[in-house]
Amino acid sequence: MKTLLWNKPASQKPKIACLGLFDGFHQGHLKLINRLMEIKNQEQLPALFFTMFQSVTDFLHQTDTKLIDNVSKQQTAAKLGFDYYLKAPLTTEFMNLSAKKFLTILKKHYNVIKVVIGSDFRFGKNREGDFNDIITFFGQENIYLIPRQDSLFSSTTIRNLLLQYNLSSANKLLYEDYHLRGEVNSGKKLGRTINFPTANIYLPQKVILPYGVYVTETLAQGKLYPSMTSYRLFEGKEVVETYLLDVNLDLYGQEIIVYFKKYLRQNVKINNLAELVALLEQDLANTLAFYTNKA
């Protein structure tokens, strides 16, 4: 899959494209993408995946409510069979594009000739454009509209499930389980003194997942490991602290991906090391029980 730059002319092969934020690959998105792939194969057209770096709301309010990070989004698009990946940076200039100018860039710079979209897609300055504008611009015969028939298949629904600690239901609606990625950095290394060493990653800002302790699975050095994870605000930083079960790896400076499986408990104030050890041992027992039942 080739990455394209927004507003930079690229290959002039005719293309079929899907348009959207795609802030998490849920079943509604997959329905749209599956339809696109059918048309791609029937008409032998390369497929272009258009998305944005973040939502307008996150851009304006400096928040992070997306369900998938941008690296995972691009990797998933490649897995699903797209030939081109076009990510628009959410800048003031981009947000001020008229609906017609946006479509003109897609046509002129990337030779998009067919489009698959969801019925609720909006674009252009002040969200002025909708599927009717796309039909007018490209022609009815070149537009494939996927109606949103079930509010269950929506990012808002999944976010609400996460906020309600219902990871099981949220993950069932996602292409991949909800996850966070980052480079492992050095912490205070307190866990090593009590036989619970953690791999710590720091996030630039709060994500949609509530703070707490979770059963997780961690991808490290190309392998998945059962793990348990605390996500919390510590000394003003968003930190994900992950303990990998039955393995001791040197992960400093390496990227890991933590997949969240089940909520265990809230983060609580600890008064001493003995209390911390007892709490972690209970977390470990609950984590092991989860994986035993899963097996």
Structural summary, described in words:
The protein has 295 residues and is of the alpha/beta class. The protein folds into two domains: 2-155, Rossmann fold (3-Layer(aba) Sandwich), CATH 3.40.50.620; 177-294, Beta Barrel (Elongation Factor Tu (Ef-tu), domain 3). It is 34% helix and 28% strand. It has ten helices and twelve strands. It has a six-stranded parallel beta sheet, sandwiched between helices. Strand 5, helix 6 (131-138) and strand 6 (143-146) form a beta-alpha-beta unit. The mean pLDDT is 90.
Could you state the oligomeric state of the chains shown? single chain
CATH fold title of the largest domain: Rossmann fold
Largest sheet: 6 strands, parallel
CATH architecture of the largest domain: 3-Layer(aba) Sandwich
Integer count of domains: 2
Which regions contain 5 or more consecutive residues with pLDDT less than 50? none
β-strand amount: 25-35%
Global structural class: alpha/beta
What strand line-up does the widest sheet have? 1-4-3-2-5-6
CATH superfamily of the largest domain: HUPs
Q: Given this structure, which CATH class of the largest domain is correct?
A: Alpha Beta
The coarse overall form would be elongated
Number of strands: 12
H and E string: EEHEHHEHHEHEHHEHEEEEEH
Residue share in helix:
25-40%
Radius of gyration: 22 Å
Question: What is the overall pLDDT average?
Answer: 90
